[in-house]
Specification:
GO terms for molecular function: phosphatase activity. The chain is of the alpha+beta class. The chain folds into 3 domains: 155 residues, no CATH class; 383 residues, no CATH class; 150 residues, no CATH class. The chain has 20 helices and 27 strands. The relative contact order is 0.10.
Length: 824
Amino acid sequence: MQFAKSPRKRCAVCVVNGLQMLFLVVPRTVVPPVSVEPEPLMFFDELFPPTKKETTKEKKAVITSQWSAGSVVIPLVVNSNGEIERHRDFRTSEFSTLKEAYDALGPFEYVVEYPALFGCLLLDKVYILVATKVEEAASLPFGGSILRVLETEWVPFNIPGAAPLRVTPTDRTRLKEFQRYSYERGYFYSDDVDLMKPFPFASSSVNEVPEFYCDWSKQLRQPFRLHDVSHGCSILIRGYAEGKNVHLQGGSILHLLLIGRQNNLNPGPRYLGRGLNGNNAVGNDHIYEYIMWKQNDDKSFSFAKHTILRGTIPVHWQTRINATISEPSMIFSPNKDDVLRGSDRYFESVLRQLATLIKYDSGDSSIKTGPFLRCINLLRQNPQSNEGVLARYFVEAVRKSDTAIRSIFPNGHLDLVHVDWLNLVKDYGIDVATKTLWECSLTFLAPENCDALLTIGCIHPDGSVTRSAYQNRFVRVNCADSLDRTNLGCFFTSFQVSIVMLQSLGISLGSFLDQKQLPSLDGQEDFYNDGFSSFSLPLAGTKTVLPKPFVNSWFEARNPSIYPVAVGRVLSELYVYNGDVVAQLYTNSAAMHGNILRGICGLKATASNMVIATQRMFENVFEDAKKFRIVELLLGRNKDIHFPSMSKVFLTRPVPIEKWKCALIALGVPPTVTLPELEDSVRRAWDELVLPKLPSAGFPSIPSSALCFTVSAEEDEVESYNEFVTAVSQIAFEKPPPTEEDISLPQQHEQIAIIQFDSDLCAAMDVPKLLLANAMLRIKDSNVILAQYGYPIQGIEGDSSGIVQKAASSLKTGLKKFVRGLNN
C-alpha cells in the first residue's frame, strides 16, 4: 500500500471581470458499485449458502486515503447573502485540475494559489482563511504527511450588493488586526490522514473514536457544508507535531513522532485561560501521543505508542495583576464549592475520553478495564504560597471527583501525587527531582509489568491495523500553567517509556549508530558518584529501585549500554521545540527551564528564566485580550462580543440593499428554537392571521404553502458565551493597564432570526408588509416580534478619536519592541 497523497495546491483565488472566485480542490467522490443479488434458481437456491455478514468484532481498523480516486476542482463564489456556493455560469461545474479550470475560464486579472484552505468567516466581508506557507513536520507510514503551518492569510471576499456595514473606529482597528494576524507557530494539519483520530489514524473497528476537541477550524468549514464541499477544507489542529528519524545499524531507520493536540473548549491565553471555565474545561489542555515505528521486511510497519496528558488545574481562581512587575496573586473564593465547581465534571469527561481511547486501541467495545489516571502535580508545596493553596484545592478536587468516577468507572482509578519540582531541584539537585518524578510515574504506569504502558500494533501493507497490546494507565502532568515544569515532567516520563517501546519493537541498544554518552543534567557528576546519595532525601521511598527495564538515575541513563542515548537525544530536542511552541501559544514567549533539555540534545542555550518571566508579564497583561479575540474568531465564537458595533442583523444574514424590503427581522426568538420550527411559525401566522384578510385587501387567497422564503438564525452560543464570561472574570488588576482593549463582561442578548422572501413574490405581493401589519409569531409560548430588515450603513464622516488612539498605540508599540527584544 502507498498513500494516494493530496495535491499540494489545494485552492486558488482568482478575479475575472471583477468577480472574485475560489477554486477548491476536493477529493473525487467514489460511487460504490450497486450489489446485485443472484436470482434464486428453484431447487438450486440452497446450493450456495448466503454470505455471512460481517459482525462488529470482525470489522477491521483500516487506514484509507480520501484521495484514492483522485481530485476535482470546483469553482465557488460568495453570493449576495454572504454564502459560499458553486458557480454555475459555466458549461461544467467541475474540472480535473487547476490548470484545466484556468484554461477554460481565464484569462484572469488575478490568480494566487494556496497549499491549504481552512474555511471562512463572515464579518463585514467574507474572509477566507488560507495557508500561504507550509512545511512537512512529519512523514507517516505509507507516504502520508503532517504539515506545519508557517503563515496564514485572511483573504477578503466582497458580498455582492451589500451596503458597507457601519462599525466604530475601535472595531475598524480590530478588523485590521484580525486581517494582519497569521496563525503560524503551533498549528498543523494533514490532508492525507484524519488527525482527529489517534495514531495510526485508522477507521475504528468498534465505531468509537475518542473526542479530543482539537478541531480548531470546525466552525469555519460550516459555510462549505451547505454545498457539500467542506471535505475540500483542511482541518486545522493547534498544538505540536514533529517527526524525527534515528538511524540504526544496517541502514534501517527508527521513526519518532510527538503529536500534541490542544483542547479548544478553553482556548484563552494565560491569564484568560487558567483552570476551569464555564464549560468545565481547563486551559492549556493537551493530549500527547509519543510514537515509534519501523518498517519490517514484509513492508508492514510495527509501532508502539504512549499517551500522556497535561493541563492546568481543574479548579476556579482569579489572577490579580499587581502594579509592580512581580508574580501575580491567585485569588480564591471564600466559598470552597465555588472553587471546586465543575471539577468532577471535568474528570468525568477526561476518563470517558480515555475509556473510548482504550476501546479504539484495543478494538474491543466491550472492554471494561480502566481507565487508570494519575495526576502528577509539580506545584510548590509551601503552605503560604499561591501554589501551595492551589495544590490543596487540587487535592479537594480529586477527592470530590473520586466518588463520581467510581460510580461511572467501577474498574477505573483516579489519584493524585505531588512532586515539588522547584524546591526539590533547589534543595537536592535535579537528579533527585528527576528520580522522584520517575518513582511517582513509573510505579503507577507499570506496577508489576509493562503490559498497560503502551499500545502496540502493526500496520499491514493492505492498510489494515492489528494491535497486540493497549495502554490503559495514563498520567496527567501539571504545574500552575501547564507550561515549563509540565514540559519537563512529560519529557522525563517519555524518556523512560522509550526503553519499553524499543523492546516491543525488537530494537536492541547496540542497534543505534549514535552511541555518544548523554551529558549530565546540571554540568556536574551524578550524585551517586560523589556521595550525594548519602544525604537525607526529600521523600520517603526516594531510594526505591525502579523495576527493570527502567533506569534508576540519570547516571545510568547516560550510559549507552544501559539506555538508548540516540533516542534520548532526539526526544529531548522534540520536547525543546514542543515547550517553546506551547509557551508561545499560551504566553507569547519561549519556555522556561528549557536549557536543561537543550543541554541534553546539544542546542544553544536561550534567555534566562528571569528575562522570559519579564517578557511573559508584559505579553499577558497587554496582549492577552487581543490574542483571545483572535483565537475566538478562529473558532467562530462570540463575534458580536469582539465587534460590538457590528450589526447582529448583518452577521446573521446579509441581504442586498435593494432586497431589504423583502426581508424581516424576528426579535426575541427563544434560543432552543430550530429553523423548521421558525419556518412553521411563519406559515402558521400567515394562514391564521393574514390569509383571511387578503380578499378584502384586493389580493388573491395565496396559502402559506405557496410562499417561498429562507429563514436564517444566529447560532446558539450559550457555551461560548459562558466560556468568555468565565475567562474575563479570571483576571483582575490592582491598577488597570494603559491599553485600549476592553475586556469587560458583555451583557447577554436576545436571539434574532432573518426571514427573507423571494424577490419575485415580493414584486407581486408585499408579503413582509402584510405580515408586519397583521401578524406576530408565536413560538414555544413566546411572542416573537417582527421588524423590517435593515442595519446601519457606513458613512463618510470622519472621526478624530483615531488621532489619540494612534499616539497611545505608538507608545505601546515602542514598549512592546523593547520587552520582546530582551530575548535577542
